[in-house]
Amino acid sequence: MNLLFLTISQITDINDRGIYCDLMRTFRDNGHQVFVISPTERRFKKSTYLIEKNGAKILKIWTLNLQKVNLIEKGIGTLLIEYQYKKAIKKYLHNIKLDLILYSTPPITFIKTIKSLKKRHSAFTYLLLKDIFPQNAVDLGMLRKNGFVYHHFRRMEKALYAVSDHIGCMSPANVEYIMKSNPNVLPSTVEVCPNSIELQDENLGDFNKDLIRKSYGIPKGVTVFLYGGNLGKPQGLDFLIEILESNEGKKDRLFLIVGSGTEYDRINKWFRNNKPFSAKLFPSMPFNNYMQLIRVCDIGMIFLDKRFTIPNYPSRILPYLENKMPVIAATDKNTDIGRIAEDNGYGLWTLNGDLLQMNKHISF
């Protein structure tokens, strides 16, 4: 069949690693024709273009910056993206007969595009629900619950669910939340479709743990706690700084923070001012370098803001699990990522902000 995948994730080659590229390769390897639509944000200084690479056709559409950017540009870019996608699809993919349309949140603004494609092609539509907006923005104080903007986006959210033949949620708590908050959604259309990746060969060749640790300035004999991923408001990173402060000077442990995002500069400023002995901060690094670093760490960390009423399930847990690392999750009480970790014996959970319990887990 012909499959179209719409996303705002940066995809230029489905042979790259990640939850979406791995999924697209699975379809390709099973004999299906894969079409991907992905933005080329203005920071990359490229116009819209179509490429064919490794068995997939990828349409890169020029947009404003959508990720790891200020709220004003992100908001305007999100509102414009449907028009930009619809126009580019009409120009570049008008002669393709589609059988399946896949799309992920964020954003929720593809409704008209999906409706039009579904009607034209009589295609099956499947939503990969990775983000529950606008409630997440309400939780973080970015939108007023009863404001005009909230109600506008809430109508769009409902319309997106209505146009979707099936909704794949990241966890059981996600399914429960969607059903409770959207009584018009048929239970038969909602299922657990967890974040997943294709496991890689464990043959590490000339992998030298001691040498790699030395290259990152990691002392011998310490337990290394790693947080890798987005450094933004949704992670509730004030608690991360509390953890670093309360563990400063302890010579048996080291905290590595790797990533980028809207909170990176604030965290970097804390590192410059405090010059911690027991923690190191690194900006985002190439994927292969990050995977190499994971292999020399001991425990992975997950953070989510404690104000969330929606059950998020960060995909950054997957590289930890792939490398058989136990995890410690400090989150809100509504997500089930910590409960699933504890029930399956690969991690511990605490409420974001409970420093006493968190340090008990760290010293376990």
CATH class identity of the largest domain: Alpha Beta
| Number of structurally distinct domains | 2
What's the gyration radius in Å? 21 Å
What is the fold-level CATH name, i.e. the topology of the largest domain? Rossmann fold
> Can you write the helix and strand succession as a string?
EHEEEHEHEHHEHEHEHEHEHEHEHEH
Strands side by side in the biggest sheet: 3-4-2-1-5-6-7-8
**N- and C-termini, Cα separation:** 51 Å
The overall average pLDDT, rounded, is 92
Q: Any guess at the CATH architecture of the largest domain?
A: 3-Layer(aba) Sandwich
Strand content: 15-25%
Broad shape: globular
Kindly report the name of the CATH homologous superfamily of the largest domain. Glycogen Phosphorylase B
- Helix fraction, binned, reads 25-40%
Structural class assignment? alpha/beta
The total of beta strands comes to: 14
- Biggest sheet layout: 8 strands, mixed
Q: Total number of helical segments? A: 13
The low-confidence parts are none
What are the SSEs and their pairings?
Elements: E1 2-6, H1 19-29, E2 33-41, E3 49-53, E4 56-63, H2 71-92, E5 100-105, H3 111-121, E6 124-129, H4 135-139, H5 148-163, E7 166-169, H6 172-181, E8 190-192, H7 209-215, E9 223-230, H8 238-246, E10 253-260, H9 264-274, E11 279-283, H10 287-294, E12 299-303, H11 317-322, E13 327-331, H12 337-343, E14 347-351, H13 355-362
Parallel strand pairs: 1-2, 1-5, 2-4, 5-6, 6-7, 7-8, 9-10, 9-12, 10-11, 12-13, 13-14
Antiparallel strand pairs: 3-4
